[in-house]
Specification:
- With about 775 residues, this protein is of the alpha+beta class.
- Among the domains are: about 120 residues; about 110 residues, Calcium-transporting ATPase, cytoplasmic transduction domain A (Distorted Sandwich), CATH 2.70.150.10; about 110 residues, Calcium-transporting ATPase, cytoplasmic domain N (3-Layer(aba) Sandwich), CATH 3.40.1110.10; about 140 residues, Four Helix Bundle (Hemerythrin (Met), subunit A) (Up-down Bundle).
- About 60% of the residues lie in helices and about 15% in strands.
- It has 28 helices and 22 strands.
- Helix 10 packs parallel to helix 23.
Length: about 775
């Protein structure tokens, strides 16, 4: 025990020294090279040589340590060539060449130091999220106890907003839980009495009693942490590009040097060979290309932890994606609003949002946001109450308004059954509105596909991804719906963290695999993948810590950009390394035959270095083909029309509601609904479509390659106009006949349903193809 206590500080000291060694070496070698250069310019050649020699010696000492450590692991890499080259420059007194090699070695090692320190940071947030105590109920009341003291069978109380400490069963009437930390799904779930609850989820309702069924160590959340650690430990170590190239360049260089010495009997020739064989293309050119790629990616909001992750991303062929927050927005949005006869969808949404203004529920936030986006004036509610699992209620404009769940008996009206069926088909949640105890409307909410997801997946396939799959903890129905819309190669739903890790491992056996996620439940899978990518803008800290790449901007399309950058940087790194080594091989042959003295060889090697480094810097150049460049005016137009799409959702709802009304009746109420729809089309929708055609499309055409690119969307505008005129003609006939004729109903209903379908598809296409271009 004493030995262990003594060893721990020593290990920490060694770890601290190791963490600062590469930056310190970089500073020393850079200072020695710069100071020597100043001395040489001032005419102090002797002092310059001394400073450069000191920089060379400073690099030899740690380099020998790195070589010894690599040999113990059974691997000899580029550092061995560097040690021999550094020693050779000292032997032939080429101190400037030695100082340059020392700086290149220090730069290459510093670039990859972050990868070795990654394990100390992974999953810290997972541990921070875990509770340390629990409140145990006894005959004497509730007492806070350390989590380790909780045993199976204990009765615990979990307060609002608290994390469930251990796995257990609900002992109260019900519990409303936020399970997004485990499943990634943003919608709250209700657990009835005796239903199981997993540790790590958050109590989103009132306090409830929990009967522990496991200790903390045997509970779900600790298992996730343990699983993530194991997955990270099992990930294959990244072998440096330089070391992979050195696997054949090292024995070749030593063989040529030894052969030259053996055949000529001159050690000078062997040193000359080693000097021109100095692996500067490996030590600096390849890292320069990789660092340039890292820099390019960071400008787009893509933080890549190390060069190894960038290299692996450039080789990736399989992409696995979580659904929520990655392919979808990660939070519910209003999909549709259904209104009872005599009510308008806008008024239903306004009353629901007014009552929900003070609710903390995630669906309430979505309803309020939708109402504000559409410019609806909200009233201040009074006498507000909220029942966990049921919803909020209050007095709005003198009426008792409730938003949330209702009993099955209240869903008798046909419009309510239709809304319920629509929610089932669309995988949506329903918030029912009752006014003065009468069912008056329903707000349908879902987590929609992100605007940029389809474009991103197309770009990823173009960049080299051959297989795209979804891994999600969500139900199979909505997952299949998203997969069908996006054209994924496969989907696996209702997966827990362990299932996701197993799926990642299976895909890793086939190809280099990238996993993208944003929740705590994704952290183990991110750690298990060849490249883990976290949606860091709104995702959990745990997933960001476990990932190799973090998207700081809430745009999944940045991943496609990062993949293109990674592939290009890796290609340029290989070009620089291989091209430099081929030139070095030619110089080695000349040196072996005595055509190059060591000093001349050093100068020639510097010329080779300049060529390969300049080539490596091409990775900094922006690839204009990766993303269309928008003018500020065009970007402003995109934002304007995107906001109008939000504002026009009530028009789409009115079109659908009028068609539904025609299915129930052909009387004055149905005619009034069609007339109101026509007014909205004429005053709001058609002017919007006309402005898009003549302002937005004409602005986008030069950027996208000409007017033919927007031709299909223009055809949709024409179809929207045609259907709107057809509705107007039906209204003229109805006014002439004193009401809707039975012969009109089928065609008018078809027009309205068709118009609603075309509008939804057209809006989605514009959002995907055009609106996603702007940040």
């Amino acid at each position: 025990m004493n030995h262990f206590a003594t060893a721990q500080p020593v290990r920490r000291l060694l770890a601290a020294v190791s963490a600062h060694l590469e930056p310190a070496l970089l500073a020393v070698t850079a200072a020695a090279l710069a100071a020597g250069g100043v001395a040489w310019v001032l005419g102090a050649g002797g002092l310059a040589s001394l400073l450069w020699a000191l920089g060379t010696v400073a690099a030899i000492v740690p380099a020998v340590g790195w070589v010894v450590a690599a040999l113990r692991r059974g691997r000899a890499g580029v550092d061995l060539i560097a040690v021999l080259a550094l020693g050779g420059t000292l032997a032939v007194r080429e101190y400037l060449a030695g100082a340059l090699i020392a700086l290149m070695l220090a730069t290459g090692r510093t670039l990859e130091a972050a990868a070795q320190r990654r394990a100390t940071h992974d999953l810290r947030a997972l541990l921070d999220h875990a509770p340390r105590t629990a409140r145990r109920l006894t005959a004497a009341g509730a007492h806070t106890v350390p989590l380790a003291e909780v045993a199976a069978g204990d009765l615990l109380v979990v307060g609002p907003g608290e994390v469930v400490p251990v796995d257990g069963r609900v002992e109260s009437d019900a519990a409303v839980l936020d399970e997004s930390v485990l499943t990634g799904e943003p919608l709250h779930v209700e657990r009835a009495r005796d239903e199981t609850v997993r540790s790590g989820v958050v109590n989103a309702g009132g306090a409830f009693d929990l009967r522990a069924t496991a200790t903390a160590q045997d509970s779900t959340y600790v298992g996730i942490v343990r699983l993530a650690r194991q997955a990270g430990a099992e990930s294959a170590p990244v072998v440096r590009l330089a070391d992979r190239c050195a696997a054949w360049f090292l024995p070749l260089s030593l063989g040529v040097a030894g052969l030259a010495w053996l055949l000529s009997g001159s050690a000078v020739r062997a040193v000359a060979v080693l000097v021109v064989a100095t692996p500067c293309p490996l030590l600096l050119a390849a890292p320069v290309a990789i660092v340039s790629g890292l820099s390019r990616a960071s400008r787009l909001g893509v933080v890549i932890r190390d060069g190894g992750a960038l290299e692996n991303l450039g080789r990736a062929r399989t992409l696995l994606l979580d659904k929520t927050g990655t392919l979808t927005g990660g939070r519910p949005r209003v999909l549709d609003v259904a209104a009872a006869p005599g009510w308008k969808p806008a008024e239903v949404l306004r009353l629901a949002a007014s009552a929900d203004q003070y609710s903390p529920h995630v669906l309430a936030h979505a309803i309020v946001d939708a109402a504000r986006e559409r410019g609806l004036p909200l009233s201040v509610p009074s006498d507000v109450t909220e029942e966990p699992g049921r919803g909020a209620s209050g007095v709005v404009d003198g009426h008792r308004v409730s938003v949330g769940r209702v009993g099955g008996a209240d869903r008798v009206p046909s419009w309510a059954r239709a809304a319920d069926n629509r929610a089932l088909l669309d995988g949506a949640a329903v918030a029912w509105l009752t006014v003065d105890e009468h069912l008056s409307g329903a707000v349908l909410l879902s987590d929609p596909v992100r605007y940029d997801a389809p474009r991103t997946l197309r770009h990823l396939r173009t960049a080299g991804i051959e297989r795209i799959m979804m891994l999600t903890g969500d139900r199979a129905e909505p997952a299949q719906e998203v997969a069908a819309v996006l054209g994924l190669d496969g989907v696996r739903a209702e997966l827990g963290p362990a299932d996701k890790v197993a799926a990642v491992r299976a895909e890793r056996d086939r190809a280099v695999t990238v996993m993208v996620g944003d929740g705590v439940n994704d952290a183990p899978a991110l750690a298990a993948a060849d490249v883990g990518v976290a949606m860091g803008a709104r995702g959990s800290t745990a997933s960001s810590e476990a990932a190799d790449i973090v998207l700081t901007a809430d745009r999944v399309d940045r991943l496609a950009d990062a993949l293109a950058i990674a592939a290009r940087a890796r290609r340029i790194a290989l070009q620089s390394a291989m091209g430099g080594m081929l030139m070095s091989l030619a110089a080695m042959a000349a040196a072996a035959f005595g055509l190059l003295a060591p000093a001349v060889g050093a100068l020639l090697q510097e010329g080779i270095d300049v060529v390969v480094i300049l080539n490596a810097l091409r990775a900094l150049r922006v690839d204009q083909a990766a993303r269309p460049a928008l003018t500020p005016a065009t970007e402003a137009l995109i934002h304007r029309f995107a906001a109008e799409h939000d504002d026009l959702q009530d028009v789409l709802e009115a079109v659908r509601a009028a068609a539904d009304r025609l299915s129930d009746t052909s009387g004055p109420q149905a005619l009034a609904a069609v007339e109101e729809t026509h007014r909205l089309l004429t005053e709001r929708l058609l002017p919007h479509e006309y402005a898009e055609e003549h302002e937005l499309y004409s602005a986008l055409a030069p950027t996208l390659g000409g007017p033919e690119v927007t031709a299909t969307m223009s055809r949709a505008h024409a179809e929207i106009g045609r259907l709107s005129r057809r509705v107007a003609t039906h209204l003229q006939l109805a006014h002439a006949h004193g009401g809707l004729d039975a012969g009109q109903l089928d065609d008018l209903r078809s027009c309205l349903y068709g118009l609603h379908t075309v509008l939804r598809l057209h809006f989605s296409q514009e959002e995907e193809n055009y609106f996603s271009l702007a940040p």
